[in-house]
Amino acid sequence: MTQFSLKTIKVNLDGLNINCFTAGESGPPIILLHGGGVDSASISWGEVIGYLAEDFRVFAPDLPGYGDSDRPDVVYSIPFYVNFLEHLMNALELKQAGLVGLSLGGGISIGFTLQHPSRVDKLVLEGSWGFYSKLPYHLLCYWYTQSSLNEWSYALIAKSRKFVKWMLLYSLFGDPNNLSEELVDQVHQYLKAPDAAKAFASFQRSEITRTGVRTDLAKRLSEIQAPTLIVHGTEDPGVPIVYAKKAHQLIKGSKLYLMEGCKHWAQKERPEEFSRVVNAFLKG
After folding, report:
1. How far apart are CA 50 and CA 18, in angstroms?
2. What's the total number of domains in the chain?
3. Is 95 part of any domain?
């Protein structure tokens, strides 16, 4: 499995400094976009970068507000991140690339594909934001994300490592045997950061309105022309499988691969299986 290195890239978007993992010496370029919460490129993609780098040039940035990238005082939103991705690709001198997006990263990938279709070679979506016009239990989610409880919950969870582990098992891992103690420690450390909730809480307040999501990507899924693969954990509680199946119906010619028993982090639960399926799709 190919090793990868850390590269810091200066992106010309209000002077942001962006940390970006890179791997692979040849092949088409692909960009891996991680999820929200307290995620990062290394958390989401640490196990799969090496596999994908056998056949592709891989770029996995920490999104603004996450990991070791800058955390500007802005309103985080789908339009903000789509604009960021355009600048990132320009900085990397990539006219076109494949996009692999998890959760929030999936929503960014959808938004970018709709806005810049000629720059997306192929599209892979996992547990993606943007599959729905309203979240499950939408009004409850709206109330929660608009309240101070949202940020407060991060601090509360950070007080207990056992609580962190329970959270990971409840929402992200279907098989407890696939959750390493090292990952629990890594997420626990991220949660302890004083601004751990900043980016995602801002995103939720911006994008979740009382009547639905502000940037409604779901109603435009049928416009996507890029070859698309949807990878989805069958037990994902955050993005129930019904939404993935509906997106598959709407995106013409798309492929749907279900990872049985997995929750929201299928790529962490079974990285070899995930990498094999994604690699075959991107090469095909």
Report:
1. 21
2. 1
3. yes
- Single out the residue of 235, 126, 230 nearest to residue 174, CA to CA: 235
Residue 252 phi/psi, 5-degree rounding, is -60, 130
Quick one: average pLDDT of 261-280? Answer: 97
Q: Are 87 and 13 in contact (CB under 8 A)?
A: yes
**Cα separation of 243 and 239, whole Å?**
7
Measure the CA angle with vertex 31, ends 267 and 231; round to 5°: 35
**Spatial CA neighbour of 123 closest among 32, 37, 61:** 32
Q: What angle do CA 265, 127, 188 make, to 5 degrees?
A: 35
CB neighbours of 137 closer than 8 A, spacing ≥ 6?
A: none
pLDDT over 90 (residue 151) = no
Statement: residue 9 has pLDDT above 90: no
Look at residue 216 in the predicted model and tell me its pLDDT.
Answer: 98
Q: What's the DSSP call for residue 176?
A: G
pLDDT at residue 6, as a whole number? 72
Instruction: Establish if 165 belongs to a structural domain.
Output: no
Cα(36)–Cα(201) distance, integer angstroms:
9
Query: Over 80: is that where the pLDDT of 170 sits?
Result: yes
**pLDDT one-digit tens code per residue, 11-67:** 877 788 999 999 988 899 999 999 999 999 999 999 999 999 999 999 999 999 999
Q: What pTM value is reported for the model?
A: 0.96
- Percent helix, strand, coil in the chain, to 5, is 45, 20, 40
Q: How far apart, in whole angstroms, are the C-alpha atoms of residue 142 and residue 276?
A: 37
Contacts of 280 (CB under 8 A, 6+ apart): none
Q: How far apart are alpha carbons 205 and 214 in whole angstroms?
A: 10
Is 149 within the bounds of a domain?
Answer: no
- CA 182/CA 42 separation, integer angstroms: 13
Contact predicate 247/128, CB 8 Å: yes
Q: The domain spanning residue 31 has which CATH number?
A: 3.40.50.1820
